[in-house]
Fold each of these.
Amino acid sequence: MATNGYFAASYGIKADGVAGAAIAFPQDSLAIATNPAGLLDVADSFDVGLDVFVPRRSATLVQGGTETEFDANGVSTFYIPNIGFAHRLGSDIAVGVAVYGNGGLDTDYSTNPFGRFGASGEAGVDLEQAFLAPAVAYRPGAGQTLGLAVNIGYQRFKAKGIGLFGAFSSDPGAVSNHGYEGSTGAGVHLGWSGHFGPYVTLGATWQSKTSMQRFRDYEGLFADHGGFDVPSTYGVGIAVTPDSHWTVAFDWQKIDYADVPSVGDSIASLFAGVPLGAEDGPGFGWRNVSVFKLGAVYRISDQFSARAGISSNHQPIPASQTFFNILAPGVVETHVSVGGTWDLDTANSLNVSYQHAFQKTINGSGSIPTAFGGGEANLSLAEDVVGFGYSHRF
């Protein structure tokens, strides 16, 4: 998916079209992924979608007065499905389930950017995360809804071509070239939604850190002996419907990347003598990220709706941390989106969306350690996502 760091910018084809502004603006059963309280504001439905994700990532090493660019697009296209179901049990309670991808990271360098430092073979990493989220929403009073989802997480990871970092690891044999390894875990997702008059809806959401099993095959790479939990998030949103044609929504979201040591701890400690894989050991140095999302839907007619949105996030990767993040250049900041729905009849709809993340380049500053000859590592990323979906209302 279009990403804020490595989290998906949105979940579901309709939310894709409004740049993910969905905390107070549920449009289908995939609302569970953003705010489970939204279940009571959507029709009984089954929704399925597919996002075709095309990132363009690269890294440039600047050393000794020369610049060398490395293309990370050995795998260029990714297919990410999402499925949701919502059903009311009464006027004040609804249940549902969503299955969705939580973004991810992939780099595939046919020419190894670490080759000049002693690495061999192709290089890259692949991180994929998915959630199965059964949910319930309950209305305790007029206009107020509470939601709860249990996030059952699965992730898998592989790394290749970075064996040279074994010399800096607490477990040199568990750093690279072990193929895919999977892990599972669980967390909770709480939400609230409130209607204030006919025009304004407010929402708030909090998702706990998802505690995941450690990657044993990569316990010499990730801090805490292979730990790689999914960070917690929280946010608030507002949706305004001034008339029967328009809805405008705005979200603010916080992603706590820095609270997961393998993601947030600085690589600087590695060169101060703390080995990879140690407790609170070196990581990718990502900061916590705030995300701002603005989206709108215009109902052209009873059959057609159009969507558009824009979002922007603070940069997760400091300029001093770009060297290790050659493997994970999640640097895009600004996304724009469009989308639409065609209601075939009262029960069936087709949905489309397009998202573009503008190319962003982060130039390193003191990023390559003197042990590797000094210099700078620069990262670049742009993304496009085309989404297709189908909804059936019961």
Amino acid sequence: MWALWKEALKNKRFVILLIISFIGLIAFALVLPYFFIEILLPKPGVTLTDPILNFFAPRDWSIEIFVLIYLCAVISLVFNFTTPKIILVGLQTYVVVNFMRITSLYLFTLEAPAGTIPLSDPFLAVFAYGQPIYVKDLFFSGHISTLCVFLFIENRRVLKYFILLSTIAVAVLLAWQRVHYTLDMVAAPLITWLVYRFFNWVNSRLI
């Protein structure tokens, strides 16, 4: 398992890209709580009309949503950890997509759909200074984009189908809970895929 990592770490460009990605991840983690609490929550947003949400009577699916997300995360890390280049492109994609989310959340601020039931994530409750209710975390969906990172880096057919089905299930449950507009979840895979393809192209030429 460690042989591929030892070989990859001999490549200076790989190491530099990995370090930059980790710095970006740390910066994102530090900026996120302040951005949500101090900047995004007080900022007025626009309410969208989304007829698709009317098909569901709001219900709290927080546990099911986070079980699927964390399960996919564990599966992805366990099965891909032995492949450094996959871990790198996944990390690069995740970091850049989330900085793009911060930008889009600010530029295209939306108000939560009517009847929304805020997600409750025990990890986020600790991580985000005890304030886990981010009802304006909308365009575009971080939950779907995160699952799409796992989906795009996965090469095993069975696991890819499992993550795909989990992503679809999470999207339906998010709509059911009225955590997101349909637009938020439709945009997330496209943006994530473009970022993933970009870093695949960059890495193939640098390392």
